[in-house]
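Why does this matter for the project? Reviewers at the last site visit asked to see concrete outputs rather than summary tables. In response, this paragraph embeds two records directly. Each consists of the residue sequence and, immediately after it, the corresponding structure tokens. Nothing has been edited or filtered.
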Amino acid sequence: MRWDTLPGRYIEVCIATQTLDLIEDSIVIYSYPVSTAKKGAGELMGSECTPRGWHKIRAKIGDHQPLNAVFVARRETGEIYTPALGEKNPDRDWILTRILWLGGLEARFNRYGAVDSTWRYIYIHGSPDHLMQGKPASHGCIRMANVDVVHLFNQIRLGEFVWIHI
């Protein structure tokens, strides 16, 4: 892909506005609120920041799982998130419903070595809905409301381009 031209269809995540847009032929066809990293933008492994730049959807995980299905290491645990489960596990970073695993496309910026988004396990994923307050709060991933992540998951293809910026 040439970085000086936009693809016809892609996902755009704006850290400043906490929005994710699905864009086709320069038109926003869907827009969703998101929550990016509490520590801001950055690419370094262990930074807990949301990486910028061009990515692609390298894996779609969780098709046909119920809303609020809990994932650990990209595998469903059999648990369904409830407020009571959340209270029992207050320090858990909840990954729910669907996972869109991102792979960086820009060498030495978000791909390879200590900046590789794939090996940082950066996802677009569902989150407990009460955590979706329109502000940065994640550990680096892009959190979405559960119904929104299902809707997005069903709209996109594996390999879809994702542009993350401030």
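We now turn to the second protein, recorded in exactly the same manner.
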Amino acid sequence: MLAELHCHTTHSRGTKILYEGLNTTEQMVRHAKKIGMGAIAITDHNTTKGCHGLKRLSKKYGIVVIPGEEISTKAGHVLALGIEEEIPPRLSLDETLDRIMKQGGISVAAHPFDIRRKGAGTLAIKCDALEVFNSINLERITNWKCHRFAKKYNKPVTAGSDAHCISMLGHGVTSIQADNDIDSILKAIKNGKTNTIEIYTPSKIIMEWSIKRLKLSYAYVIRYMNRNYSWPKRAVGEKLLGLAEKSPGNIDYLFRVLAYFSLGSAMVYSAVRTVLGVK
């Protein structure tokens, strides 16, 4: 079966920009079924609130819906799949993995070598599986590093779209040799009965998602900048935020240029870190 193992709903919230996930759990589940997924895991940031009513949605749409959470441990982000109770953030990696195991779930190291340093790095080896492909890691090198790491240590692998809206779904997909139930899927992942289907999320989709979340978070972001930024950083931030309000329109050409510039910068940064051997 094909599975989407990394996605976020409206329950995922950020610190600088409030809204991260743009669609409800039901919208994500319905669209996953529409594009041919046999299973989807709901993995909101540090909460399981998006996992309420999953059995009803599974029955309604004929798709296996796995409860989960993307947990911000002290070492980096970990996907907990198959858990029922929320696990708090900022615990040590070992304690987090122990709590996942006690609930009968499995752990997947999310984007371990993320250039934003939100992954667990080499400590990812402690997890049950590694997310070797994250479709929004557009600079590509971090995914390449994780593929090599997983092969070196013979670790089970998954892919994830890290989808924050329905248009992001179905890019990082895991093909799993399992029956249509949660226990079978978790066991298959842990035993390495997986293959990855890897398509990078188009930068246009990421740009549109970024603009939408800025619009939804406008008042929150203004307050955040007023509290945390000094001039001129605050003035520049407010100006850029104001430009988002003009989208869609001709301003989107500017956003595309900024998106490509950011991608190029990320690729150079990631390449330099790799050459220098920075973890």
